[in-house]
# Entry
Amino acid sequence: GENVEQHPSTLSVQEGDSAVIKCTYSDSASNYFPWYKQELGKGPQLIIDIRSNVGEKKDQRIAVTLNKTAKHFSLHITETQPEDSAVYFCAATRSNDYKLSFGAGTTVTVRA
Amino acid sequence: DAGVIQSPRHEVTEMGQEVTLRCKPISGHNSLFWYRQTMMRGLELLIYFNNNVPIDDSGMPEDRFSAKMPNASFSTLKIQPSEPRDSAVYFCASTPGRFEKLFFGSGTQLSVL
# Structure
């Protein structure tokens, strides 16, 4: 099955700086890579996703990049704000497969 | 829409007791998932329903766990008897058919003493 590794486990950044979270996956057939944000006391919420036919996708201050050859993908948050503090999960799966393989999560803290 | 609704938000019980967690998926969503979240194991898929039918329960840890979906708007996850190692946050999630965006509830924090 798919195995997703996520680094770092914790990340502390100064407000306004950038944050980068990296994930690797094992199944070369995986072609869909979502990112979820989990705020304290809430369930994970999809914030951005990318498919294997695209190398990069951007939505305002967040962007994801995918390197299929190396089997890794990354989340980039620019101009971080206090509300970006949360746990972020990467995931991987084959399109139309109900089994999402989640990374272990990254706790991001944005210091004011 | 109110989103996926789970109850209770917190449950504290003693070992050996029966625990029932409840979930109301988003109206119109025909796929429902139960996940368990722990520090050690992260997010684990317990069971997946499609159109109220259990499709994959391979993630259910043992026979003490059971899940039902009697209709499109309600599902339960039952643990009987509960054990301290069942302590975790249990999430319900639903999706309208394509699996590419899961809508999670706020979870039930279960503590078994």
Q: What stands out?
A: Chain A touches chain B at residues 32, 34, 36, 41-46, 49, 89, 93, 95-100, 102-105 (CB under 8 Å).
